[in-house]
Amino acid sequence: MQMSLKRLRPHDGVPIVIFLILAAIPVLALIRSEDYLLSLFERLMIFAIAALSLDLLIGYGGLISFGHAAFVGLGAYAVGILSAHGVHDAVIALPVALLSSALFAYLTGVVCLRTKGVYFIMITLAFGQMVFFTASSLAPYGGDDGLTIAARNTLGGFAFFRSEGSLYYLIWGCLVGAYCFCWMLVGSRFGRVFRGAKENALRMETIGFNVYRFQLAAYVIAGMMAGLSGFLLANATEFVSPAYMSWQRSGYLIIMVILGGLGSLHGAIIGAGAYLLLEEWLSAFTEDWKVIFGPFLVLVVLFARGGLLGMGKDLVRRLSRG
Amino acid sequence: MGEPVLQLEQLRKRFGGLVVTDDVTLDVMGGELHAIIGPNGAGKTTLINQISGLLASDSGRIRFAGRDITALSAHARARLGVARSFQITSVLSGFSALENVALAVQARTGSSFRFVGRVAAEGALNEPALAVLNELGLADLATQIAGELSYGERRALEFAIALAMQPKLLLLDEPMAGIGREESLRLLDVLQRLKGRLPIVLIEHDMTTVFALADRISVLMYGRVLASGPPAQIRADRRVVAAYLGDELE
Amino acid sequence: MSGTLVFVQVLNGLQFGVLLFLIAAGLTLVFGVMDFINLAHGVQYMLGAYLAVTFYLMTASFLLAMVLALLAALAFGLLLELTVFRRLYDRDHLDHVIVTFGVIIFLDHGVKLVWGSAPLSLPIPDLLSGSVRLPGGILYPAWRLVIVAAGLATAILLYALIAHTRVGMLIRAGATHAAMVSALGVNIRRLFTIIFGLGAMLAGFAGILIAPILSVEPGMGDTVLILAFVIVVLGGIGSIRGAFVAALVIGLVDTLGRSFSVDILRLVMGPSPARTIGPALASMLIYLLMAVVLYFRPTGLFPVKGR
């Protein structure tokens, strides 16, 4: 599948439809009294935020990070560790989550971005593993088994997070906000340099851009956004575990980005949605759904250029022609 | 003419056992078009790479407008006004022609660490970019994707990018290579107009172009400067004729 | 922390390193020559182990089981190459990552379907199941020495292959500049298949060697895979020599780090924090090492790619 650069056009309306559908889910859940729908879609939106941040790096920057789940985990553990010490307020937990992921992104980015290609993929993988193993050996915070969080965060004393409905819309708001931020970033001066660096870094350097600085900034921003999703994840599931940052999770994040189709932002949301819904649906059939999922992935990459979005566009094109 | 704009002092570069730049000393005056000629493998592109900052020399100094830029990175040199074209045309294939040039304008106009505002609509960037494209006869191709342009058009686009940087030194690596008659005439025309306005270092194989445009010519052979001087002097230099020009001038 | 303990752990580290080399060698060649990111390399290792167990159950002969498993691992690797990977050589790295990741998911769970999720084991042949008396009076498990010997022998054979045969020369050339080799008229497809098969066999061999002392279970290839990657990157992509050096270093650092981190930390802090930080630090050690090396040498210790 070619990583073709999609020129920015006014959004096709697809993102708006997505957000409207997502906003309507709680109503649907209420009507059908299916509470699990809420938690399923909460997770969907949370992973969509993480996938968005990774799409920034991969789709727009050509930086294939295989350790992105580490930032999600850092955000989640910020909530978990603070909670274990009796600090429950989001006013503290959120900045800590964001700062720790930003700091980790900065420190590792400084090293990673000196490498290219396969080396970059490997070194991001290695840093992700580092965080994973560190979390696994933190016995006071659950180690391998993870840590149950006593209660969700409060927002300045208000139990905002503790009602399922308000948590859902809070996450929804974060997703919309993240999407708008990414959209703005990609079309900005910064975004154009970042995208140009993916296209032809050498050219950019000889025009006068210090590509490294731009990539580092983007890496930190993406890390922070993933940290946000981790913060939300810990609150939604009331649990943190090293599994949140396993390399398999990083792999699944990449899959979400690809599944939806590179080169567009809402593709990441669609990809995250497709992955999670597929997981729900297939696991209802059989416990060994992954045996089907593996080959499915292989086939998507081999034959479905442009991911699901691409397939959708092809379909629309064929239908309108027919 | 005063002080030289570019001074290369005893540059040396080797790749393993191979010496590609052997004690090269030369200078370029303001407004001068200085051609560098020599057979393939003489180290011309390597020299340009060292001047533009993509390759670090093993020893020697490079001075630009009196300032020692030997330790500066490529992007820092570009900011100082060193612009270049590549032997194999290098543009942003997925971007439009206008955006390619607008990026060059963006690099010298204000900060690019701005996260707000749609850059594609910035008149302050697009207008100068369009003007440069116009100068090179590429204005109608402005919205076309660079990857879809013909080779000659992409070469001209690369020129436009360099010009949009408002450079104080232009390094051109075989700009005439691989393009058709009409396009080379167009580029020649541009070079004629630029001549005198800013110092240009031109690597070329096409001798007609070289002798028509150059104020001075340096001949590079096995990484060393064999001879350097005005065209007439080079043409008459026995060593140069014997070693390199002999076949070319027949 | 006694001298004998250190010595034993050094041996363990060498044994681990040698095993990792077997896996990393194939990986570095595939990366280097074919520019193909093969995340599924770890499952080759896992399959080697599973196949060894199965063939032993069928034949009751350890030697026969080993040979059959090796052949089956090779066959499987070639099958994968032919059916799936071959189409990916011209695609970008991202596609490699996704597809091979898909293969891992498929096989990690497929293996569960075929063999069940309970860990299996392979008994060591009686002749080699005892311990060997080493200088200093230390008793060291014979099979571990077998692993070290087998690994070193393979390393020497590999070296001979790469440095002194025509195929080896093609491999070295391919690792430096694959397009050039192809342009020179060499059947690059066949070369790729050979390299891939070789790598699969080496990984399978490592799996067979480890089966008697480690429990054979689904997903056992995953941790080893990451380490193999670290080794490949550290040693320099495409370099067997680099892979050998890096593998031994990683094997030693990891083993010694895990054994002695707490003790070393106790020298500078109290026993309780040492016991908490020690294991965490030990597991991070290799990655920190890799980060430091890559910071100064972004292309590894013995980079091979030509300019």
Descriptive account of the structure:
The complex is a heterotrimer of chains A (322), B (250) and C (307). Chain A has one domain: Orthogonal Bundle (ABC transporter involved in vitamin B12 uptake, BtuC), CATH 1.10.3470. In chain A, helix 1 (14-32) runs antiparallel to helix 2 (35-61) and helix 2 packs antiparallel against helix 8. Chain A has twelve helices and two strands, in the order H-H-H-H-H-E-H-H-H-E-H-H-H-H. The relative contact order of chain A is 0.18. Chain A has helices at residues 14-32, 35-61, 69-84, 90-112, 117-136, 164-186, 189-207, 211-237, 247-260, 265-285, 289-303, 307-321, and strands spanning 147-148, 239-240. Helix content of chain A is 74%, strand content 1%. Chain B has two domains: 1-81 and 169-177 and 196-250, 3-Layer(aba) Sandwich (Rossmann fold), CATH 3.40.50; 89-166, no CATH class. Chain B contains nine helices and ten strands. Chain B is globular and about 60 Å long. Chain C has one domain (3-296): Orthogonal Bundle (ABC transporter involved in vitamin B12 uptake, BtuC), CATH 1.10.3470. Helix content of chain C is 75%, strand content 3%. Chain C has ten helices and two strands; from the N terminus they run ααααββαααααα. Chain C has a two-stranded antiparallel ribbon with strand order 1-2. Chain C is globular, with a radius of gyration of 20 Å. The chains are: A mainly alpha (322), B alpha/beta (250), C mainly alpha (307). Chains in contact: A-B, A-C. At the A-C interface, helix 5, helix 9 and helix 11 of A face helix 4, helix 8 and helix 10 of C.
Topology overview:
The complex is a heterotrimer of chains A (322), B (250) and C (307).
Chain A: H1 14-32, H2 35-61, H3 69-84, H4 90-112, H5 117-136, E1 147-148, H6 164-186, H7 189-207, H8 211-237, E2 239-240, H9 247-260, H10 265-285, H11 289-303, H12 307-321
Antiparallel strand pairs in A: 1-2
Chain B: E1 4-15, E2 18-29, E3 33-37, H1 44-52, E4 59-64, E5 67-68, H2 74-80, E6 82-84, H3 97-108, H4 123-135, H5 151-164, E7 169-173, H6 181-194, E8 200-203, H7 207-213, E9 216-221, E10 224-229, H8 231-236, H9 238-249
Parallel strand pairs in B: 3-8, 3-9, 6-7, 7-8
Antiparallel strand pairs in B: 1-2, 1-4, 4-5, 9-10
Chain C: H1 3-34, H2 41-59, H3 62-83, H4 93-115, E1 131-134, E2 138-141, H5 142-164, H6 166-183, H7 188-210, H8 220-235, H9 240-266, H10 271-296
Antiparallel strand pairs in C: 1-2
Helix pairs in contact in C: 1-5, 1-6, 1-7, 1-8, 1-9, 2-3, 2-4, 2-7, 2-8, 3-7, 5-6, 8-9, 9-10
